[in-house]
Amino acid sequence: MAQGNSVLEVKNLTHVYTDSRSHVETEVIDNVSLSFQEGKFVCVLGPSGCGKTTMLNIIAGFIRPTSGSVVFEGKEVKSPSPERAMVFQDYALFPWLTVSGNIQFGLMMKNTPAKVREAKVTEYLEMMGMKGFEHKYPFELSGGMKQRVGLARALAVEPKMLLLDEPFGSLDAQTRRTMQRELFRIMAQAKKTSIFVTHSIDEALFLSDRLIVMSARPTRVLIDIELKSAKPRQRSDKEYSEVYEKVDKVITAEVSKSIE
């Protein structure tokens, strides 16, 4: 689907992993082409192990594809860039740094002046509802708080695109629901083009402007739809229940095929 101002283009993307011992090749991504509009929050769903995270890592520049390309703002992606910031499922915080130090890390890599860094810490901790936690260490934080810090760190470098790899996957159900609402609030302020990988249909329908459903490995696009109902979306909405049923049926079928 390509509409409006596309900030990122995935073109004929194919990726094959080769086992270092057996040299057996496994195709993970099969000729996928997608475009992403500026300012949209896009959720990517699919069966476990289908290649969603691999595709996100290629978009981030952590992995080079076997063939095809990713083009961001007219330039081919060949390496990581602060313009495309990643938020990880396992938080990826530095345990030896405080909350403030973690948020400042990317800014330090950009040689941002100390006063600017400190102002950014204050700004994003207020946005995350964590004012007063500047001097805490990761081991002193709950899972939800750690993910807020990870999100603040990503946003502090002012990326043009945010990549979120199952950021709430490690959280309990209640905290996950809370973080979904918080992410909706934060993204309404930040207004970043975002790609959010998740296993949860409910989460995708609650958060996304657009929903992409991938097949089992080797992955390809099965569903690509714009969600029309206004956000914050109610789980009682007609569109919500209709799309949920459709997506659940497709993913269940893909999971069944993958274990046959």
Give the SSE map.
Elements: E1 6-18, E2 25-37, E3 41-45, H1 52-60, E4 67-72, E5 75-76, E6 84-87, H2 99-109, H3 114-128, H4 143-156, E7 161-165, H5 173-190, E8 193-197, H6 201-207, E9 210-214, E10 221-226, H7 238-258
Parallel strand pairs: 3-8, 3-9, 6-7, 7-8
Antiparallel strand pairs: 1-2, 1-4, 4-5, 9-10
Helix pairs in contact: 2-3, 2-4, 3-4, 4-5, 6-7
Question: Per CATH, which architecture of one domain?
Answer: 3-Layer(aba) Sandwich
Radius of gyration: 19 Å
Sheet with the most strands: spatial strand order: 6-7-8-3-9-10
Q: Report low-confidence residues grouped into runs of 5 or more.
A: none
**What is CATH's topology name of one domain?**
Rossmann fold
Silhouette: globular
- State the distance separating the first and last CA atoms: 31 Å
**Could you state the order of secondary-structure elements as H and E?**
EEEHEEEHHHEHEHEEH
- How many E-type strands? 10
For the record, what is the CATH homologous superfamily label of one domain? Answer: P-loop containing nucleotide triphosphate hydrolases
How is the biggest beta sheet arranged?
6 strands, mixed
The number of helical runs is: 7
**% residues in beta strands:** 15-25%
Top CATH class of one domain: Alpha Beta
Question: Mean of the pLDDT scores?
Answer: 92
